[in-house]
Design brief:
The chain is an alpha/beta fold. It contains six helices and 15 strands. It has helices spanning about 40-55, 85-95, 110-115, 120-135, 145-150, 200-215; strands spanning about 1-5, 5-10, 10-15, 20, 30-35, 60-65, 100-105, 115-120, 140-145, 160-170, 175-180, 190-200, 220-225, 240-250, 260.
Length: about 270
């Protein structure tokens, strides 16, 4: 989905799969902001068409806000797979945006590959608000599911945080186990697990079960990007250790009693 200056660009599809973009000249300003929400690969060709039209006007400037950077998990060359993040970044760079803001990039590789880019981390803003809402006390804990998440939010400033370590199969990369390596869980402690991306939610379910076994009370998940695959896993089941998920509409907006959506349209993030 492409939004130009707060208005969604209207597109249609021909029977053969080609994309038709409705005229949007009335939306063009001197200084433009494109908000890019990736839902499928066709959104990349839509982004191309919109930016090329802006170049023809021409506009004085054009900024890009990427709500979720597609292919960001393919951030290195793995044997048997292509380094697809490199190719997508090359494509976006070819469109020559003045600035590119990426909401919660999965790793610094995204920012290294994208020209004129900056990462924005709304979870760091939302976390203290959520802690206040949940009436956090000194015995409650912020939990990072792995070292990557801990490094990503290293500026969160919470001394009483806990960090898990994942054990992976060296051949397949699949998670075989998790262990709390840093911090402690007081009996009855409320916990907020913080990360950037949730797919089916298996990692968070695993972490939640361990926290419960250690004596934790209510467990919450704060994750910026949430894939529709979450509905195919057990994370939202009634017997799940995760009481509630707080996320954005960067990838979906399906209503569910256990999901709270946080507004991602604030100008602070561009």
């Amino acid at each position: 989905m492409i939004v130009l200056n707060k208005h969604q660009i209207v597109t249609e599809q021909f029977p053969n799969g080609e994309t038709k973009v409705k005229d949007f000249d009335q939306l063009i300003l001197k200084n433009n902001l494109i908000e890019f929400t990736y839902q499928e690969d066709g959104d990349l060709i839509r982004l191309l068409f919109v930016k090329k039209r802006l170049d023809e006007v021409p506009a004085e400037s054009c900024r890009l806000l990427i709500r979720y950077m597609p292919y960001s998990r393919m951030d290195r060359k793995i044997e048997g797979d292509l380094f697809t993040l490199q190719y997508v970044a090359d494509f976006i760079n070819s469109l020559q945006f003045d600035t590119v803001s990426v909401v919660e990039p999965h790793s610094n590789v995204t920012l290294e590959l994208l020209a004129n880019s900056v990462g924005v981390y709304p979870a760091l803003d939302w976390l203290p608000q959520l802690m206040e809402k949940l009436d956090f006390s000194d015995q409650d804990r912020i939990v990072f599911p792995d070292k990557g998440a801990a490094a990503r939010y290293i500026n969160s400033g919470y001394e009483k945080s806990c960090v898990f370590e994942k054990k992976r199969d060296p051949q397949t990369g699949r998670i075989e186990g998790m262990e709390l390596k840093t911090g402690d869980i007081p009996l009855g402690a409320k916990c907020i697990i913080v990360d950037d991306l949730c797919s089916a939610g298996g990692t968070f379910l695993w972490a939640g079960k361990i926290l419960k076994e250690m004596g934790a009370g209510a467990i919450y998940l704060l994750v910026t990007h949430c894939e529709p695959r979450i509905f195919k896993g057990a994370l939202l089941d009634d017997d799940s250790p995760i009481a509630r998920v707080f996320t954005t509409n960067s990838m979906m907006d399906t209503v569910h009693p256990k999901i709270n959506y946080i507004n991602l349209t604030n100008e602070h993030y561009v």
